[in-house]
Amino acid sequence: MADGATLEEELGQLLEQETFPPPDGFRERAVVSDAAIYDTAEQDPEGFWAEQADALDWETRWDQVLDWSNPPFAKWFVGGRLNVSYNCLDRHVEAGRGERVAFHWRGEEGEERDITYASLHADVQRFANALKDRGIKAGDVVGIFLPMIPEVAVAMLACARIGAIHNVVFGGFSVESVRERMEFSDAKALITVDGARRKGKTAPIKQAVDEEMGGLAQLETVIVVRHTETECEMTEGRDVWFHDLMDAADADCPAEPFDSEHPLFILYTSGSTAKPKGILHTTGGYLTQVAYTHKAVFDLKPEEDVFWCSADVGWVTGHSYIVYGPLANGATSVMYEGAPDYPDKDIWWELCARYGVTIFYT
């Protein structure tokens, strides 16, 4: 603070109150091109959100936009039925956009995979059937402890397809944190990985999971993605390789519509101040919100933009703006496994240039 200046004076110098209108051409092409939309949303919030929900595909339209009879518990689109996986995949494939890239994936060691909507749709259907083959049904909780690899999106969408509730744990958390979240949520299955890479080093994730998960009786299945070729033991009857399940599963798994208030996922707080608290997000209201905000806030135009949210899927930002928002809008996104400064400090900018990123969110 400058000598003699009050806090109010100092803040006055820091706060910019002048507005800077965008060029006419930019405004005319913007998804939100008229500031009056704010007034509309404020004056008629139910009408506003009903209009946004109409952008999704519903098997059954809702009877009531919002039930606020028991605050603070809100129920959105009461009576409506839809499937999140269908809205993120099937409808784009059916509209002829199956060959559009859903994810440009880049591994830490330079591996690359372009995953189209059609290929993601196929993998999600197979894995949804694989989960059902392991006894997972609607309402069951499935834990996901994976690095930033395409299988994390496959796992989330497969759960959504059959009505299972996913519980993703940030890949940087300890296995003790994983156990805690699996125990709290009564998870029946856990999807993990043989090993994970970070700045040139490989961590034996499956081995660590085994050491921590002993005695967790409700955990009936552990599905292991082979990613780093790290050796690991497989417990007979409980553990199974992801690729073996995929090879054995049927290819066709129609998306089942669920009630708008059906639980989609649980995501736990970090637990830095107390025990982790599970936040439950339901289907219709969540998907409506993230699909709209992804499009409106980032001014997304799916036909021309390449979007990159550099968060981890283990956070709600990653759920919303790596998986569900972009895929609901038919967008092309970048997914990167590694750290922002490895192998070089300019790796993010290299990837932006390589994949033609037009919207970067970090």
List strands and helices in order, with pairings.
Layout lengths: L6 H8 L9 H6 L6 H8 L1 H9 L10 E7 L2 E6 L2 E2 L1 H11 L6 E6 L5 E5 H17 L7 E4 L5 H13 L2 E4 L6 H11 L3 E5 L2 E3 L2 E3 L1 H9 L7 E5 L13 E3 H7 L9 E2 L3 E6 L9 E5 H15 L8 E4 L6 H13 L3 E5 L10 H9 L3 E3 L1
Concise description?
Helix 5 packs across helix 6, helix 5 packs parallel to helix 12 (316-328) and helix 6 (117-133) crosses helix 7. The chain has 13 helices and 18 strands.
The CATH superfamily bears the name: ANL, N-terminal domain
**Widest sheet: strand ordering:** 5-4-17-16-18
Radius of gyration: 22 Å
Taking pLDDT < 50 over at least 5 consecutive residues as the criterion, the unreliable ranges are: none
DSSP helix count? 13
Beta-strand segment tally? 18
**Overall body shape:** globular
State mean pLDDT (0 to 100 scale).
Answer: 96
Fraction in beta strands: 15-25%
CATH architecture annotation:
3-Layer(aba) Sandwich
CATH topology: Rossmann fold
Separation of termini? Answer: 29 Å
Count of folded domains: 1
Please tell me about this protein's structure:
By secondary structure, the protein is an alpha/beta fold. It has a single domain, classed as 3-Layer(aba) Sandwich (Rossmann fold), CATH 3.40.50. Helix content is 38%, strand content 22%. The strands form six sheets. The protein has a five-stranded mixed β-sheet with strand order 5-4-17-16-18, sandwiched between helices. Strands 7-6-8-11-12 form a five-stranded parallel β-sheet, with helices on both faces. Strands 1-2 form a two-stranded antiparallel ribbon. Helix 5 packs parallel to helix 12 and helix 6 crosses helix 10 (242-248). The radius of gyration is 22 Å and the shape is globular. It starts with 6 loop residues before the first helix and ends with a strand. The model has no long low-confidence stretch (mean pLDDT 96).
